[in-house]
Amino acid sequence: MPRCGWVSEGDGLWATVFRDGVLVRVDAATDRVTRRVHVGATPEGLVATGGALWVVLEDPAQLVRVDPRSGTIGRRIPSVGQGPRLVTAGAGALWVSDFEAGTVVRVDPRTGRKRTSPVLCQGPQGMAFQHDRLWAACTTGEELVSVDPATLRPGGRMHLSGDPDAVAASGDRLVVALQDGPVLAVVDPGASGGSAHVVRRQVLGHAGRLYDRANVDLVVRGGTAVVSSYLGGGVYRVPLR
Fold it and tell me: What is the DSSP string of 166-226?
């Protein structure tokens, strides 16, 4: 399972299993798998929005809609990048990070229409909205970059060493999982997107860098960050308050 995505939905946690081509639901109370949905080859990024789950299939470069109640596969949107990885939702659209091209792709979930940003950085992966801007973690370039959702052009950026991967919003902060460790960083993005800075950095392990062989992922739920560790073979639960 070299790549995977997580997302909270209702009283469960959905995760993609890259190697097996499936989406699984885990009951939050019992940690048992309660549903498996075969979505296609190499599922990675995952987001819940508008009553649906959307999954990025990396190799076929597709975005797939799944009904979380029935497990039914819905629309498949093709050609969402050269090397699509992760997906988030905001500003009325879905956003797919293209690791290979260094861009993000805006996708209208109703029409399937797509727009691609200019090159933003090296190796964008995790994304989150904060202060009406899209923030992308650039793993290879080791930085966070803000993107104007209207123009798709980059704005503020900050260096963040340690291979930033997954990103989530928590209150007025961004929470970033760094592959090298892993490490958890809490970032104040600044109101204008141009004055971002780290307010907390916590080392969780010493597993080392992944060099694009795998990903770490992140879920923030109830004031706690849950970070996966591929090399460590487990997860870390970190209170944010």
Answer: EEEEETTEEEEEETTTTEEEEEE--TTSS--EEEEEEE-------TTS----EEEETTEEE
Q: How far apart are alpha carbons 144 and 164 in whole angstroms? A: 8
Residue range 91-100, pLDDT digits in tens: 999 999 999 9
Residue 1 clears pLDDT 50, i.e. is over it: no
Number of H helices, E strands in the chain: 0, 23
End-of-domain residue from the set 86, 119, 152: 119
Count: domains in the chain: 2
Write the burial class of residue 107 (CB in 10 Å: 0-12 exposed, 13-18 middle, 19+ buried). buried
